[in-house]
TrEMBL record, chain A:
Pfam families: ABC_tran. InterPro entries: AAA+_ATPase, ABC_transporter-like_ATP-bd, ABC_transporter-like_CS, P-loop_NTPase, PstB-like. One of its GO terms (molecular function) is ATP binding. SUPFAM superfamilies: P-loop containing nucleoside triphosphate hydrolases (SSF52540). Keywords: ATP-binding, Nucleotide-binding, Transport. CDD domains: ABC_PstB_phosphate_transporter. Residues 4-244 form the ABC transporter domain. This is Phosphate ABC transporter ATP-binding protein.
TrEMBL record, chain B:
Signal peptide: none annotated. The keyword Transcription regulation does not apply. It comes from Gallibacter intestinalis. Belongs to the binding-protein-dependent transport system permease family. CysTW subfamily. InterPro entries: MetI-like (IPR000515), Phosphate_PstA (IPR005672). It is a multi-pass membrane protein. This is Phosphate transport system permease protein PstA.
Length: 249, 276
């Protein structure tokens, strides 16, 4: 069954139409990758899935986006939605506070006050994000002292601490070195047991390596959406083929 | 090691210019502080710190206490308005809206108005129209209006300097607007806000013209906020004006400087505590 269902979604920034009527079904407990050249709308779509576009002045959306069959724009409070659909951003963006407080911010926001419970959530989230061993001795130190790759895994842990069902990742490895990238990719493959993951990536090898489904975006439209193996080995559309063989983009 | 300045005459010249500029800037400050200390310290005597002011002792103790009360009262009035307005402008108002532009222009204009004009306004508004006469309250309200644009502008700059990625991360975790502002944005902006507060304190402590008309010059500790008072700077002005007490004036200047440094240090400490 599909976790998220996008139906005839159009999106405008002021008068500019950024997304031209797309529909897709995103399956549960799978990694779905969005690929495509810069400015094709893939980040815009992923940001609509937890309504981060609400923050953009003049942004307007038509059509429906359903999470477990419930319309997230018409029938759901954004705060509830964002608790269920977490997000990891392109650049690591830890808060300027301690490692512990970074992770505890989400649970505290949603009313967890008990110290023992918070301790447990922090440890579990950091373990899930495979960074526990590296930070367990410096939980009280500033998160800004971590390396870029560690910061990004911290941000993943922070997103997981509120126990979301879906994890959106907007080019999570574009600012990282190959070793950190590798770690994040392994992590994503691990996490799909428990989460539905949607990932935007510029890197086609990355999409091919870790995703189950891939959508190819071009100029605000989904050109092709299929199982990753199928899309990369046997693209149906000429434009998809040109893109994945590196003829443009 | 070869340095560029050793090889290019122009680099050498600019290097020397730069050093002269540094020496000049630091030199003026050092001379000023040194001069006041040398002239003032020998004149500091215990009787200058007597609790009661008399024409004999010219004690500055009441003035010191009044300065602290005046500073605190002014900040208590001005901070909520200044910070609140800045939060509205940065976090709530549409950036393209004309209100934002009008408020910014108003604040900038307000910060360029000479303090004597504020003094006259305060005298007419708070002293006469409100019937508060010469009082601590009239003075504090006048000073609050004076420092309001400073606090607002610096807080605004500080809030604008907080990366949007912090806000996104907070919203992304399901935090609401208020929680994001109070837990993430304001703490991150705290150093900038404190810089504004320190600037304001400098203006409050150093102000004379606006206070002569509003708080008056009575040199004793007021029993209520509606009594007339004199701050250290006004006290210094009064001593100089009378021309009879130059030694005491120098001593007062030393204390005024120390008070300013102390207040700055203290606000820095508080800022660091708050930022945690």
């Amino acid at each position: 069954m599909s976790k998220i269902s996008i139906q005839d979604m159009e999106l405008y920034y002021g008068d500019f139409q950024a997304i031209k009527g797309i529909s897709m079904e995103i399956p549960e407990n799978k990694i779905t990758a969005f690929i495509g050249p810069s400015g094709c709308g893939k980040s815009t779509v992923i940001k609509s899935l937890n309504r981060m576009n609400d923050l953009v002045e003049g942004c307007r959306i038509t059509g429906n986006i359903l999470l477990d069959g419930v319309d997230i724009y018409k029938e759901m409070d954004p705060i509830v939605l964002r608790k269920r659909v977490g997000m990891v951003f392109q650049k690591p963006n830890p808060f300027p506070m301690s490692v512990y407080d970074n992770i505890a911010f989400g649970p505290r926001t949603h009313g967890v006050k008990n110290k023992a419970q918070l301790d447990e959530i922090v440890e579990r989230s950091l373990r899930q994000a495979a960074i526990w061993d590296e930070v367990k001795d410096r939980l009280k130190k500033s998160a800004l002292g971590l390396s870029g790759g560690q910061q990004q895994r911290l941000c993943i842990a922070r997103a997981m601490a509120v126990e979301p069902e879906v994890l959106l990742m907007d080019e999570p490895t574009s600012a990282l070195d190959p070793i950190s990238t590798n770690k994040i990719e392994e992590l994503a493959s691990d996490l799909k047991k428990d989460f539905t993951i949607v990932m935007v990536t510029h890197n086609m090898q990355q999409a091919a390596r870790i995703s189950d489904k891939t959508a190819f975006f071009l100029l605000g439209d989904v050109i092709e959406y299929n199982d990753t193996d199928e899309l990369f080995s046997n693209p149906q559309d000429k434009r998809t083929e040109d893109y994945i063989t590196g003829r443009f983009g | 090691m070869i340095k560029t300045k050793d090889r290019h005459p122009m680099s050498m010249f600019l290097n020397i210019c730069m050093k002269i500029a540094i020496i000049f800037t630091v030199g003026i400050l050092a001379f000023l502080i040194g001069y006041i200390l040398i002239m003032g310290i020998p004149n500091i005597s215990p009787e200058l710190f007597a609790w009661e002011f008399t024409t004999d002792n010219q004690s500055m103790m009441p003035a010191i206490i009044n300065t602290l009360i005046m500073t605190l009262l002014t900040l208590v009035i001005a901070l909520p308005f200044g910070i609140g307005a800045a939060i509205y402008l940065v976090e709530y108002a549409r950036q393209s809206s004309p209100i934002v532009k009008i408020v910014r222009i108003t604040a900038e204009t307000l910060s360029g108005v000479p303090s004597i004009v504020f003094g006259l306004f305060g005298f007419l508004m708070f002293g006469i129209a409100f019937g508060w006469n010469y009082s601590l309250m009239s003075g504090a309200m006048t000073l609050a209006i004076m420092v309001l644009p400073v606090i607002m502008r610096t807080t605004e700059e500080a809030l604008l300097g907080v990366p949007d990625s912090y806000r996104e991360a907070s919203f992304g975790l399901g935090a609401g607007k208020l929680r994001t502002i109070f837990r993430i944005t304001l703490p991150s902006a705290m150093p900038g806000i404190i810089a504004g507060v320190i600037l304001s304190i400098g203006r409050i402590v150093g102000e004379t013209a606006a206070l002569l008309f509003t708080a008056g010059t009575v040199a004793s500790i007021p029993s209520s906020v509606f009594d007339s008072t004199r701050t250290l700077a006004v006290h210094l002005y009064a001593l100089l004006n009378e021309g009879l007490y130059m030694e005491q004036a120098y001593a007062t200047a030393v204390v005024l400087m120390v008070v300013v440094i102390l207040i700055n240090w203290l606000s820095n400490r508080i800022a660091k505590k708050l930022a945690k």
